[in-house]
Amino acid sequence: MYFDYETITPGNKVSNYEELESEIKSLINNSDSLSEERKKVRNLLYDKQNQNIVANRFINYLI
């Protein structure tokens, strides 16, 4: 990878589906203490004009 993995992936690391589901539910139901760190990564990796387009496509795909 071009970037250090730990630097561009703030938050808990999961190793199976159950942990992933639990982490997603936790983020939905609680405040995200790493919100500012995630914004920094988003701004680093995605052009600001396309951020909402990418996010909406991803959400629609998941639904």
UniProtKB/TrEMBL annotation:
Keyword DNA repair: no
Keyword Lipid biosynthesis among record annotations: no
Coiled-coil residue windows: 17-44
UniProt keywords, alphabetically: Coiled coil, Transferase
InterPro entries assigned to the protein according to its UniProt record, in alphabetical order: Glycerophosphate_synth, TagF_C
GO terms assigned for molecular function: CDP-glycerol glycerophosphotransferase activity
GO cellular component entries: membrane
Superkingdom of origin: Bacteria
Name of the protein in question: CDP-glycerol:poly(Glycerophosphate) glycerophosphotransferase
Organism: Clostridium sartagoforme AAU1
